[in-house]
Amino acid sequence: MRITEVLPQLPPDVTSYLLESMFSALPLPVPNTPAARDSRDAAAVATLVAMRPANAADAMLAVQIILAHETAMDLLRMADRPDVSIGDYLRYCRQATSFMRIATSGRSLLLRIQTDREKAAKRRAATAPRPGMPKLKIVGYQHRVQMPPLPDPDDKLLD
Prior knowledge:
159 residues; two-stranded antiparallel sheet; 2 strands
């Protein structure tokens, strides 16, 4: 997949930077093979696209959410190793829980931003002037319809 296909609404340089930053910050897969890294990267890109970022700020937030989630999953994997002491197990689980909360709150924030943006777009579309509709003039607290001027009765075109 080409970079311009991943997030077509963003400039290719921004998309490239975001993807490179995300790939370098993701935890290493187990086993750490090229195929496993490719699968990990493909899953991260699919998740990023599914979050539907509309601009660079949304995309940066989406990358942070993905990284927090993947870090939580890596901490849980580390806690599940057989050679981990009880103290380390509890520490890994607490850290994983913290990263899960970060990912969840980031996802909630992104959804709220996207919902507010959609509502604002619908309001703008609903209040946009339509062709053929008279314009409203706002005067104080009253709205007055500005009608087109009446034709001149002396005009010969009306005969």
